[in-house]
Amino acid sequence: MEIRNLLNMDANIVLGIVNERLRLECDTIEELSTRYELDQNALREKMESLGYRYDPISNQFK
């Protein structure tokens, strides 16, 4: 799967993929955004549309 197309996917699917990548590959949302060339603000907005916010302590969207 091409993660660069992530923001075009259904938000529920994006949530699972992003939290998995944060858990296994990236220590911060900044690292995730840089590694996969994602617009961090667009990602946050997409997750907020589902009621999730990034928690830097647990490094996941909750």
Brief summary of the model shown:
It comes from Photobacterium galatheae. The protein is mainly alpha-helical and 62 residues long.
Describe the structure in your own words.
The protein has 62 residues and is mostly helical. The protein has one domain. It contains three helices and two strands. The protein has helices at 11-24, 29-35, 40-48, and strands at 54-55, 60-61. Strands 1-2 form a two-stranded antiparallel ribbon. A hairpin with a 4-residue loop joins strand 1 (54-55) and strand 2. The N and C termini lie far apart (24 Å). The mean pLDDT is 91. InterPro entries: DUF4250. This is DUF4250 domain-containing protein.
SSE blueprint:
Blueprint: H1 11-24, H2 29-35, H3 40-48, E1 54-55, E2 60-61
Antiparallel strand pairs: 1-2
Protein name: DUF4250 domain-containing protein
Pfam families: DUF4250 (PF14056)
Organism: Photobacterium galatheae
Features:
62 residues, 6% strand, DUF4250, DUF4250 domain-containing protein
DSSP summary: helix tally: 3
| Secondary structure: helix percent | 40-55%
Low-confidence stretches: none
Largest pleated sheet: 2 strands, antiparallel
User: How would you describe the shape?
Assistant: globular
Number of domain units: 1
SSE order: HHHEE
Strand order of the largest sheet: 1-2
Structural class by sheet pairing and helices = mainly alpha
Strand content: 5-15%
How many beta-strand runs?
2
Any idea what the radius of gyration is? Answer: 10 Å
